[in-house]
Structure prediction request, 431 residues.
Amino acid sequence: MNISDYSIETRCIQAGYEPKNGEPRVMPIYQSTTYKYDCGEEVAKLFDFEAEGHIYSRISNPTVAFVENKINALEGGVGALCTGSGASAIMTAVLNICSVGDHIISTAAVYGGTLNLFAVTLKRLGIEVTFIDADASNEQYEKAFRPSTKLLYTETISNPALVVPDFERLADIAHSHGVPFFVDNSFASPVLFRPLEWGADVVLHSTSKYMDGHATVMGGVIVDGGSFDWTKPGFEGLSTPDESYHGVVYTEKFGRAAFVNKARAQLARDIGPVMSPLSAFLLNLTLETLALRMRKHSDNALKIAEWLQGRKEIPWVDYRGHPDNRYYENAKKYLKNGASGVIAFGVKGGREAAMKLMDSLELAKIVVHVADARTCCIHPASTTHRQLTEEQLVEAGVKPEQIRFSVGIEDADDIIRDLENGLNKLQLMEE
Ligand SMILES: *Cc1c(COP(=O)(O)O)cnc(C)c1O
Prediction:
């Protein structure tokens, strides 16, 4: 049977590495920067893409390749490239088709680091980004497009505003303008949502989030959906000879997998955003439990959101898995297997009360992280989104009284007890 015929649970465990007779059952760590060949001619063939093999670990490494295969099988793509962080995955994917003078449209409520990358660093490189409300009308989207627009970008469950866009609609808008649709799927993971099945062309992850899920390894990945026709005008970097690679034409050489192969052959080579073999080994282990974890994260988050909703100190709770939520319909359509583990809520008393509640929690730790097996929390307005102006905070969906609460896979009742103790202490302080 082909690996893609198995369920996502089975793919989490089995995809990526297949030992041959007598080889280690568990994926080995190839801790080597370089590879030995018997004759020079073979190496020359590698450089011409005429043979398969590894040249140098900045470009590819067997252990990293096993994990790339696994993630590619989980998302249903035609190829994947792992990077040293989610940030470098996004940067590499964008630079693969954008250069000075080009333009991107991104939904406004995206990860703080992505906002900075788009609004400041890309701008310095001459790439302009227009931010748009994910729920804006089709007409508003139309107005944002320019002749130089190269892609439409969004996140599955945006961090930290928790927006769930209407993916089919956004994919249609992008494609009707002849540009690809990029989705950062870090907060759902392929267990809960596979963007390629809903019109996305390129999927990105910070694997440092749920894919790792244990807060041990930084990493990112680009998954090529193989769906976009890069011979369209505007994407000549893929469809005309690459002088830096002795004239290879990626669309001709790699067909549907042109995007990921260009990213590797050209940008991983030139910029070097590599994932280490040890990180890949650890990521592979944690991916084995991804399906189990995502189900538990989702169950726990729903339980905790419902409990918080009954507390008078909590004026609002944001969890798309709850029928009262503004994104419930989108979640029902796109997140059928669970709505994931990150919730947000407000605390009566504003910024100060929110900070006090966090300080009094014992099980839930304050960390600059999210999507971890261990429950954790943060106050976005004073930390991850600190650099933003008041106006940008509103655009990013960050409120002063807001706590981002990343529900772990502990026993839900224990997490609830922790919150209950914290809220009770808050009341004592107020009285
Ligand atoms: C954390 C995060 C990133 C950045 O990933 P790093 O691995 O921290 O570089 C990108 N997108 C989203 C949605 C994130 O949560």
Summary: Residues 110 and 198 are 19 Å apart (CA to CA). The chain has 17 helices and twelve strands.
